[in-house]
Design a protein that fits this description.
The complex is a heterodimer of chains A (about 325) and B (about 575). Helices cover about 70% and strands about 0% of the residues of chain A. Chain A is mostly helical. The chains are: A mainly alpha (about 325), B alpha+beta (about 575).
């Protein structure tokens, strides 16, 4: 296994270089630059525009800019953000961390919902329940995340109207935006943790529903296959109960592909949690990345891309390794 | 002479009130003096994180540096364009207006209790005028490319010397201090780099000092800025009843995009919200009616501080025919008659916009020439003018052509993603097509569009663009860069030379106006510039959207309705805001 890991690691280097070069070139294809946007203010003089370009190195040829950037990258420096005049790492660390919380929570939520549903669909094949699970989960797949989030927020407002009329209770069930409540910094650590969890419920649910359809369908197929296999017939012949057969003997092998998929968690960070973060004002990757793209703060954009491609590659490696651990039939030489 | 720029009366008044705090006029708030209560926290929104806490660097305004740039020597109130002493106790102006002596108030204090000194103002001047610090105030220290200078003349006095008599001089006295013993000292020992390394957003808020009504107590990136009352602000800021300001104990900025801010407002978590359009107003009104929130919403408090127009490119060497068409005044006037402002206001803005006829933003009504030549929607008149430009015959497809059978055909670009502008280009193109002028609306990336617009020379890469301008002051809304032939924002012609006599005349008037200190006389010159520009019609002004506001009913102390407006005046003064 060790030589395999080492070999994989060396394969990462050219992939990484290629990815960053491509990202850099694409970022340069965009017309204008960070300074362009200031030029539409009547008070700004041409001299200032030129001076800022020189200051940020934007007047240099693309290749020179790339080599400079790459040079500092190999030393672990992602460059400076134009708009905030501080190292890119400072700018992107918190958003990545916040997105990670949300993606992790959504994944756990996904497993908590999808495994029982998949098992249910498999053991109650072609029943009304099976069809209903499929219909609802495909709905989750089809509806765009940002829209679904907005619909849920609207639902919260409508529900507030209902509870106020009926019970005189006029608070919202869940928060409509943000990651923490006002005064969070003064909470106890335990209370802080719960506050974040409470804010994660709506965005986490939205993200989880997007993957639920695929997950339940695959799990259902796997389960059906294993439930019809010889070792299950043997287990039944030994007189084992249904529950034990389903959850102990069939579910375990059926779940292997998903365990391997844990490694893919990191790559799913690439887009952060997507536009849900904007709709719900979650301080994650997406709002910061879009903001940087809009301002053409290219080193911040590239910083996110570099970290993302690193996570993608490491994530893939972890996936492969986990697969080997989880499935005894796979061996790497 | 009502708005006489260099008002001696103010100087006399200020000298009379020796070492006294600045008294916030009762006319700036709806709450009568003495009735406001102390306490409470204001919750409002911010669209994105501050990018730095350093007041000199800063390429754009942010909530934190705003609170560090409060103690400006002079300020403009919401009710007038006149400059009044704020951190300054008094000021005197030389006869030719080139030397201004300022004395600062004795009671000025930073948020840590240290006095704000002339050295602090001087440090700010030194830092802002070094190009290496990258201050966005750098340009404001130059008049016609000659630098304004500042010197300390006494314990509480300083002198500003301007290279020439200039209306814009006073804007230079909206000058704020920075801490000499922190930022100034860093500059003296390590230069601009040392200053720029200070006060990044990672800095512990307790290390920062403020001169505004609040000081930062916490920053949660992507989430919120938490503020507490600056206890020393009241030493030099009181209301007319003598109460030390501000009234509020604290403030919170929730960082969220427009939609999320609306949701937070509807959830009762924000006290203030700026509805972006009539849809937002509708949603808020319903929530108010249903009793979900206790708030007020005001539709159309005033026009936005921006312009929106169509500009034709006069520098089209590669297409002499089209270049001649664009340089023909009859053609441009005809096109202006095709801008259906009423339709745009109704269809695009659902009524929440106002017609614009000159370059002056509608939120500066003092400077708008109401009697200027206007071009109302009139296709018949447009046809007459086009005939005068030589386009009176029609080809087989019904398009207007000249004697040689050439039709007028051009592309009208605007920035992609701005739905309103895209709709305006559509409306204009349809009206033009209807009378036989071939206009193709197109949407381009904003940066590309700006690159095209700002390109210079005799052959520039666009035909016509719909775009807008924003920024500029209330002292003289006729920017050099926009109205002089060499200006890089002289958008229709950036060849560097004036092409028409009118351009030359406007250029002279712009320079003359800046040197006219008497505001009424300057206003007359401004009116003449607007009239000349209207007759030449190089830029077809369209409409200006209105600004709206909504706030929780518990929040009080807003401007009286008649002086309430969008930026730069705003809907309220923060120190006078209080909770009911």
């Amino acid at each position: 296994m060790l030589p395999y890991i080492i070999r994989r690691f060396f394969h990462l280097i050219p992939t990484f270089l290629g990815a960053t070069l491509l990202a850099f070139l694409i970022s340069q294809l965009v017309p204008g630059d960070f300074v362009t946007q200031r030029a539409l203010e009547p008070n700004v003089r041409q001299e200032t525009i030129d001076r800022m370009r020189a200051q940020f190195g934007l007047d240099q040829p693309v290749l020179v800019q790339y080599v400079r950037w790459m040079g500092s990258l190999v030393q672990g420096d992602l460059g400076m953000s134009f708009s905030s005049n501080q190292p890119v790492m400072n700018v992107i660390r918190r958003p990545i961390q916040n997105s990670l919380y949300l993606v992790l929570f959504a994944t756990i939520l996904l497993w908590m919902m999808a495994i029982p549903l998949g098992v249910f669909s498999a053991v109650r094949q072609y029943t009304f329940g099976d069809q209903a699970v499929s219909a609802v989960s495909y709905f989750g797949l089809a509806i765009p995340n940002f829209f679904f989030a907005q619909v849920l927020v609207l639902g919260l407002f409508l529900f507030r109207g209902f509870t106020r009329e009926t019970f005189g209770y006029s608070s919202l069930l869940f928060p409509v935006a943000g990651m923490t409540s006002n005064g969070w910094e003064n909470f106890t650590p335990w209370h802080q943790f719960w506050d974040i969890m409470w804010h994660m419920i709506i965005p986490g649910f939205v993200i989880a529903t997007a993957s639920i359809a695929g997950f339940t369908r695959v799990l259902r197929g796997q389960m059906i296959e294993y439930l019809g296999s010889d070792f299950i017939r043997t287990a039944r012949a030994k007189g084992l109960g249904n529950r034990s057969i389903t959850y102990k003997h069939a579910l375990r092998p059926a779940i292997i592909p998903f365990i391997a998929g844990i490694g893919a968690l990191l790559p799913s960070l690439i887009g952060g949690a997507g536009l849900v973060e904007i709709v719900m004002a979650w301080p994650g990757i997406t709002p910061r990345l879009l903001d940087a793209i809009q301002r053409q703060d290219i080193y911040v954009v590239l910083g996110f891309l570099v970290i993302s491609s690193l996570l993608l590659m490491i994530g893939n490696l972890i996936s492969d390794l986990l697969l080997a651990v989880a499935d005894p039939r796979i061996r790497y030489g | 002479m009502r708005r006489l720029f260099l008002s001696l009366a103010f100087a006399a008044l200020a000298t009379f009130a020796v070492a006294n705090p600045f008294v916030w006029p009762a006319g700036w708030t709806v709450t009568p003096p003495g009735e406001a209560e102390y306490g409470g926290t204001l919750s409002t929104g911010a669209l994105s994180d501050p990018r730095t806490f350093q007041p000199v660097l800063q390429s754009e305004t942010n909530e934190v540096t705003d609170m560090m740039q409060y103690a400006t020597l002079l300020t403009q109130g919401p009710d007038s364009d006149e400059w009044i002493p704020y951190a300054a106790e008094s000021f005197t102006v030389s006869d030719d207006g080139t030397v201004i002596d300022v004395v600062i108030r004795e009671s000025l204090r930073w948020s840590d209790g240290e006095p704000i000194t002339v050295e602090d103002y001087f440090a700010s001047y030194i830092l802002q005028t070094d190009p290496d610090t990258g201050s966005n105030k750098y340009d404001s220290w130059f008049l016609n490319d000659v630098q304004i200078t500042m010197e300390i003349t006494g314990e509480r006095s300083m002198r500003f010397t301007f290279p020439s008599t200039d209306r814009l001089a006073f804007a230079g006295l909206a000058h704020f201090p920075v801490r000499d013993d922190i930022l100034g000292e860093a500059y003296r020992t390590g230069g601009a780099d040392a200053v720029n390394a200070l006060w990044g957003t990672e800095t512990d808020p307790s290390e920062l000092v403020f001169d505004g009504p609040f000081m930062l107590s916490g920053f949660q990136p992507g989430e919120r800025l938490i503020w507490v009352r600056n206890p020393y602000f009241g030493s030099w800021n009181v209301d007319e009843a003598g109460n030390e300001l501000p009234f509020l104990d604290g403030m919170i900025h929730r960082i969220a995009d427009g939609d999320a801010q609306l949701n937070l407002f509807l959830a009762g978590e924000l006290d203030l919200f700026g509805p972006r359009n009539l849809d937002d107003i509708g949603v808020i009104s319903v929530a108010i009616q249903n009793g979900d929130i206790d708030a007020e919403v005001i539709e159309g408090i005033g026009a936005a501080g921006s312009s929106q127009f169509i500009v034709f490119n006069w520098n089209l060497e590669r297409d002499p025919f089209l270049q001649n068409v664009f340089r023909n005044v009859n053609f441009r006037q005809a096109m202006w008659h095709l801008v259906d402002r009423e339709a745009i206001i109704e269809l695009v803005y659902s009524g929440a916009a106002e017609s614009m006829h000159t370059n002056v933003y509608l939120n500066s009504p003092f400077w708008v020439n109401e009697d200027v030549t206007t071009y109302d929607y009139d296709p018949e008149r447009a046809l007459e003018l086009l005939a005068r430009a030589g386009f009176s015959q029609r080809d087989g497809q019904g398009y207007l052509v000249d004697a040689e059978g050439r039709r007028i055909s051009f592309t009208l670009a605007t920035n992609a993603g701005n739905a309103q502008r895209e709709q305006i280009t559509q409306i204009f193109a349809e009206d033009a097509q209807a009378i036989g002028v071939d206009v193709t609306p197109t949407a381009l990336d904003f940066s590309l569009l700006v690159d095209q617009l700002l390109s210079s020379g005799d052959d520039r890469p666009f035909e016509a663009i719909l775009i807008g301008l924003t920024g500029g002051g209330r002292d003289w809304p006729f920017g050099d860069s926009v109205l002089t032939c060499g200006g890089f924002l002289h958008m229709f012609n950036t060849s560097g030379e004036c092409i028409t006599a009118t351009e030359t005349l406007i250029e002279q008037l712009v320079k003359q106006g800046r040197q006219t200190l008497d505001t009424d006389a300057a206003r007359e010159i401004g009116f003449e510039i607007q009239e000349l520009e209207a007759q030449m019609a190089p830029i077809l002004y369209t409409v200006s959207p209105q600004v709206h506001t909504a706030f929780a009913s518990r929040l009080a102390g807003e401007h009286p309705r008649e002086i309430m407006a969008g930026a730069p005046v705003g809907t309220r003064q923060l120190p006078l805001t209080h909770i009911r």
